[in-house]
C-alpha cells in the first residue's frame, strides 16, 4: 500500500484500490461512516485531480468536500443530483478537467486560467501561476504513486 503523508487533522480517508477489471474508491469520514463505489480504469486519474484541486484551492463543496459532508459516491453520479449541487462543485469539476488537460498537454499552462474562464464566469480566487504549477507538480506525483500501486493494493490519501 502506498501512503501519502498524513496532513494535520484529516477529516476523511480516501482509498483507491487497484483491481483487475477496474478500481474501487472508498471514502471513510472522520465519524466512521463511509461510501464506496467501483470506478473505471481511468477514473482514478480524474479523482486524483479532484483531490489536488479541491485541497489546493480549499474547495469544500467539490466532489470530496461533498462526500465529506455525507453525500455518497453513487448520489454524486446521479444527473438529477448533479443539477442541484452548489456552484463550487462545478468549479471543482472544471478545474479538475483543466488540470488533467494540463498534465497531458491538451492545455498549456499559459492558457489554464483562460480555459477555466471559458466555462466559468471567472477563475476562482487564488488561482495564480504559482498555484497552477504546484497543483501540476502534486498531481504528477500522485499519478506516479498510483502507477506504482500493485493490483490488489491501494493508494491512501487524507482529506483536509
Structure explained in plain terms:
The protein is of the alpha+beta class. The protein is built from six helices and five strands. Strands 1-5-2-3-4 form a five-stranded mixed beta sheet, with helices on one face. Strand 3 and strand 4 form a beta hairpin. Helix 1 (43-56) crosses helix 4 (87-104) and helix 1 (43-56) runs antiparallel to helix 6 (129-147). The protein is globular, with a radius of gyration of 15 Å.
Provide a short characterization of the protein structure.
With about 160 residues, the protein is an alpha+beta fold.
Helix proportion? 40-55%
Number of helices: 6
What would you call the structural class? Answer: alpha+beta
Using only C-alpha atoms, the radius of gyration works out to 15 Å
DSSP E strands, number: 5
Largest sheet, spatial ordering of strands = 1-5-2-3-4
Features:
alpha+beta; globular; disordered N terminus
Describe the protein's topology.
Layout: E1 2-3, E2 12-19, E3 22-29, E4 34-39, H1 43-56, H2 63-69, H3 79-82, H4 87-104, H5 112-117, H6 129-147, E5 154-159
Parallel strand pairs: 1-5
Antiparallel strand pairs: 2-3, 2-5, 3-4
Helix pairs in contact: 1-4, 1-6
Amino acid at each position: 500500500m502506498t501512503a501519502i503523508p498524513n496532513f494535520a487533522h484529516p477529516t476523511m480517508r480516501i482509498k483507491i484500490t487497484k483491481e483487475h477489471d477496474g478500481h474501487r474508491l472508498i471514502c471513510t469520514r472522520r465519524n466512521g461512516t463511509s461510501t464506496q463505489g467501483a470506478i473505471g480504469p481511468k477514473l482514478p486519474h480524474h479523482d486524483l485531480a479532484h483531490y489536488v484541486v479541491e485541497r489546493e484551492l480549499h474547495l469544500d463543496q467539490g466532489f470530496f468536500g461533498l462526500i465529506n459532508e455525507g453525500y455518497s459516491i453513487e448520489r454524486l453520479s446521479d444527473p438529477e443530483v448533479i443539477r442541484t449541487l452548489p456552484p463550487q462543485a462545478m468549479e471543482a469539476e472544471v478545474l479538475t478537467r483543466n488540470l488533467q488537460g494540463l498534465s497531458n498537454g491538451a492545455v498549456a499552462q499559459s492558457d489554464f486560467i483562460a480555459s477555466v474562464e471559458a466555462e466559468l464566469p471567472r477563475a476562482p480566487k487564488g488561482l495564480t501561476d504559482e498555484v497552477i504549477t504546484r497543483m501540476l507538480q502534486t498531481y504528477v506525483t500522485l499519478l506516479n504513486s498510483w502507477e506504482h500501486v500493485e493490483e490488489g493494493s491501494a493508494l491512501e490519501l487524507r482529506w483536509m
